[in-house]
Amino acid sequence: MDALPNNLPTNPSGNAPADDATKNQVASLTAAQLRDIKAQLDLVLMALEALTHIGSESVLETAKTLQLENILSDRVGLWRLRQSSPLRKGQGRKKLDVEEARALVLVICRLSAAHHEKVRQAVATLEQSTQQGEPPHRAAILGDYLDNFSNLYSDRMSEEALLPHPAAPTQNTTIQNTVAQNTATQSTANQTLTQLSFRLLIDLLFYSAPNGERQLWLALLDRAVQ
Fold it and tell me: Which whole-number Å values give the CA distances from 168 to 5, 80, 174, in the listed order?
């Protein structure tokens, strides 16, 4: 069985040994920090789904390969675990514990490594499009990824997770102004979603590399304690 990432690096390179402070971070995670971690894990896995078209079966098969079927045993359990994300529509009450988080980290990184070439190709295409000043969605691999990610996010996530609430109209606000404000809000939300999808895509490249599980776990901890 692959060891769970208890020994974590103190920097993103994954070369340094774990220190007591990092271990203490894991032991002292609060319920709110675990909620943030499960939200981030769900997003990373969703980005991987959008790029590679994997489904729950691939996740469960990978968990079995890693001898983690006692934690990720079936589709219903996986669905409940992911549905517990605070960003999800109708989020469930399932709480994520540290062992479940570690299991998801290992599964995500194993799947990312299996699709490393596609992840690398997508990131290289994004870099090339950016350098040439071309809209990234015009590249087939990125356009497909963006469409899939947007559809998955729209289907699964609460609007409040991304969309800012538009300001309530005042007496002097015309209908046209209200429509314009809402349109601007939607445009901002679309831009935010695109930025999120590309950030997750770039992150996947690091998680698909050797010691990717350490980098992912460290990133989760850093975000959770901010």
Answer: 47, 36, 12
Sign of CA dihedral 159, 40, 67, 114: positive
Q: How many CB atoms lie within 10 A of CB 39?
A: 21
Distance CA 112, CA 88 (A): 23
90-148 confidence digits (pLDDT tens): 766 566 788 888 999 999 999 999 999 999 999 999 999 999 999 999 999 999 999 99
User: What does DSSP assign to residue 94?
Assistant: P
The model's confidence at residue 190, banded by pLDDT at 50, 70 and 90, is confident
d(CA 115, CA 113): 5
Determine the number of helices (DSSP H) and then strands (DSSP E) in the chain: 9, 0
What residues pair up with 88 in beta bridges, in sequence order? 157
Environment class of 63 (CB within 10 Å of its CB; exposed 0-12, middle 13-18, buried 19+):
buried
- Neighbouring CB atoms inside 10 A of 128's CB total 12
How large is the average pLDDT for residues 30-36? 84
